[in-house]
């Protein structure tokens, strides 16, 4: 996934990539609302565990 400023509307301006890992990417960005630099981490969709999480069961007693 390529992170761009368009992904965040007017709130964040992506400045540069800080690093990559097997799980995602970290970017340096400028927060236009708070007026300072922040780091934004994106997680690769294929690494999300949502499909493997157990579904809570409701037990009627």
Walk me through this protein's architecture:
By secondary structure, the protein is mostly beta strands. It has one domain (5-48). Helix content is 0%, strand content 41%. It has no helices and three strands. The chain has strands at residues 12-20, 24-31, 36-43. It has a three-stranded antiparallel sheet, with no helix packed on it. A hairpin with a 4-residue loop joins β2 and β3. The radius of gyration is 17 Å and the shape is extended. The mean pLDDT is 78.
Largest sheet: 3 strands, antiparallel
Please indicate the percent range of residues in DSSP E strands (runs of 2 or more): 35-45%
Count of separate structural domains = 1
Termini distance? 46 Å
Which blocks of ≥5 consecutive residues have pLDDT under 50? none
String of helices and strands: EEE
Shape: extended
From the alpha carbons, calculate the radius of gyration and give it in angstroms. 17 Å
Mean of all residue-level pLDDT scores: 78
Can you count the helices? 0
* Class of secondary structure makeup: mainly beta
Please give the order of strands in the largest beta sheet.
1-2-3
Percent helix: under 10%
> Count of DSSP E strands?
3
